[in-house]
Amino acid sequence: MYLCFMKPVYAKDTLTITTHLVLPENTNTLGNLMGGQLLNWLDIASAIAAHRHCRRVVVTAAVNNVSFQHPIKLGDLVVIEAKVSRSFNSSMEVFMDIFVEHGATGEKTKCNEAIYTFVAVDQLGNPINVPELLPETEVEKIRFDGALRRRQLRLILAGKMKPEEATELKALFDRH
Ligand SMILES: CC(C)(COP(=O)(O)OP(=O)(O)OC[C@H]1O[C@@H](n2cnc3c(N)ncnc32)[C@H](O)[C@@H]1OP(=O)(O)O)[C@@H](O)C(=O)NCCC(=O)NCCS
Q1: How confident is the prediction for the chain on average, in pLDDT?
Q2: Which homologous superfamily does the CATH classification assign to the domain defined by 9-135?
Q3: Which residue has a Cα nearest atom 10 of ligand 1?
Q4: How far is ligand 1, taken at its centre, from the CA of residue 8, in Å?
Q5: Listing from the earlier edge strand, what are the strands of the sheet with 108-121?
Q6: What pLDDT, in 10s, does the model give residues 62-98?
Q7: Beta bridge mates, 109
Q8: Residue 162: CB atoms within 10 Å
Q9: By alpha-carbon position, which residue is closest to atom 44 of ligand 1?
Q10: Model pLDDT for residues 96-143, shown as the tens digit of each residue
């Protein structure tokens, strides 16, 4: 049997920062960034972070937890900071912080967070194993811990896990 031991990857080594200028073709009739455009930018930034983690082809398995809290205006700069928060067998959760940099003043405000899930696949599209992720900072550790419960919730909703198997998620409710 051939066993492949993959070197763990530090969360910081997956960091991907992208910046986008909101142009007229990205906006609705109110001059606000369209949600679908932001989802596309998030997809690209998080796919690069997941690729940096495993160095393989990755596909978007799920778009999780995206909400649009504040309108983003024409001429603003959107800065997306994406990092893998945890890896499992073939899947990786990517956590994103989204900032808006005001075009005229340069003031930078955090406007949102988003989470996407990617799966590493081979040339036939079959899932393949990825390296373990090593969190270092306090925030990375908090997101790493929460990722297990979020994965269980996603898999229950996708019909891929029985609720009784989600022990960490269940423990969260039992505590309260
Ligand atoms: C994602 C994909 C590769 C999963 O393949 P699958 O045969 O369903 O695989 P499995 O059920 O064996 O699951 C493989 C991994 O995907 C994860 N996964 C599957 N469905 C998921 C979902 N809805 N949400 C989160 N993770 C999911 C599983 O948890 C598993 O992770 P693990 O290996 O870390 O434990 C497959 O569904 C696919 O190719 N989807 C299309 C991807 C794509 O085209 N994306 C762009 C959309 S436009």
Answers
A1: 92
A2: Hotdog Thioesterase (3.10.129.10)
A3: 127
A4: 22
A5: 16-21, 77-87, 91-101, 108-121, 57-64
A6: 999 887 788 899 999 999 999 999 999 999 999 999 9
A7: 100
A8: 9
A9: 59
A10: 999 999 777 888 899 899 999 999 999 999 999 999 999 999 999 999
Cβ atoms of 7 and 13 closer than 8 Å = no
Structure tokens given for 11: 């969360």
DSSP strand E in 42-159: where? 57-64, 77-87, 91-101, 108-121, 133-134
CB atoms under 10 Å from CB of 59, counted, come to: 13
Q: What pLDDT does residue 176 have? A: 53
Burial bucket for residue 101 (CB in 10 Å: 0-12, 13-18, 19+): middle
Positive or negative CA dihedral for 44, 104, 35, 29? Answer: negative
pTM (2 d.p.): 0.93
The set of protein residues with a Cβ atom below 6 angstroms from ligand 1 is 59-62, 88-91, 117, 119, 121, 125, 127, 154-155, 158, 160
